[in-house]
Design brief:
- 52% of the residues lie in helices and 21% in strands.
- With 248 residues, it is α+β, with helices and mostly antiparallel strands.
- It has 2 domains: 104 residues, no CATH class; 93 residues, no CATH class.
- The strands form 2 sheets. The chain has a 4-stranded antiparallel β-sheet with strand order 1-2-4-3. The chain has a 3-stranded antiparallel β-sheet with strand order 5-7-6.
- Strand 1 and strand 2 form a beta hairpin.
- Helix 3 runs antiparallel to helix 4, helix 5 runs antiparallel to helix 9 and helix 6 crosses helix 7.
- It is globular, with a radius of gyration of 22 Å.
- The chain starts with 7 loop residues before the first strand and ends with a helix.
Length: 248
């Protein structure tokens, strides 16, 4: 693998532990002329990056004593790091983007299937495959009560947020929202396209919160109507079924 250009760590974003980069270190490597604070805030605003989805912030004490000062570090996902590198439009940016792609490639290779090297590994592989078959059989068994539950859900007036919707679909919020963005249902900022608002499948809910500095703010998030959950369920089930057929 390429020698380390920027340190890649792990941070929890959106409830998931993922690979991240300290944006301050990336800023230094890219040799950006603008100061870090102005640069990162400008990029977040211009390219609609979302806190707790694309990045997380953490205050860091840089000096102690009476004159102690805090700074804010931004830990960004590899996807955000690649985009930050790409938009610099220079050789440093190209090198950083290629480096992050290699990091992701190496991670996937480590997680990929490998042939067993011993008899004990072969036995473990057979046991894992047996568990997978058992899981598939269980999934078939739960399809009927699951469908009946959704039919009951449609009659409710309750609005469903992203976390609840993901649980209903037996997936994670991150994977569900990535799926919806790929199909043009959500914008990059995880807000619904106007078409789906007009059909009353989704709505935008303003949510007040206080940031880590104590400042009151308002975030906008998508919530799903019962009709919207049924609509997404059909899309998602079709995708899962098609994927299973390809794997089979």
């Amino acid at each position: 693998m390429t020698s380390s250009l920027v340190t890649v760590n792990e941070s929890t974003i959106g409830g998931e532990l993922i690979q991240t980069v300290n944006a301050r270190e990336l800023h230094q490597f890219l040799e950006v002329g603008k100061d870090f604070s102005s640069w990162i805030k400008d990029r977040i605003d211009k390219y609609n990056f979302v806190e707790n989805q694309d990045f997380v912030c953490s205050p860091v004490l840089v000096s102690e004593g009476r004159g102690g000062q805090n700074r804010i570090d931004y830990h960004v996902s590899l996807d955000m790091a690649k985009e930050l590198s790409m938009v610099e439009r220079n050789e440093k940016g190209k090198a950083a983007r290629k480096y992050f792609i290699e990091i992701e490639k190496e991670y996937r290779q480590k997680s990929s299937f490998q042939l067993p090297k011993s008899f004990s590994e072969a036995l473990q592989l057979a046991a894992d495959q047996a568990k997978q078959i058992e899981y598939q059989n269980e999934k078939i068994g739960v399809m009927t009560p699951k469908a009946e539950y959704y039919d009951l859900l449609i009659g409710s007036e309750e609005l469903i947020d992203g976390e609840q919707a993901a649980k209903l679909l037996r997936t994670s919020r991150k994977k569900l929202f990535a799926f919806l963005k790929e199909r043009g249902v959500l914008t990059k900022s995880n807000l619904p396209m106007q078409l789906y608002i007009d059909k009353d499948l989704m709505r935008i809910k303003p949510t007040p919160y206080t940031d880590f500095l104590g400042n009151p703010k308002v975030s906008l998030k998508v919530v799903f109507t019962q009709k919207g959950i049924q609509y997404i369920r059909v899309m998602f089930d079709d995708f899962i079924n098609a994927r299973d057929l390809v794997i089979a």
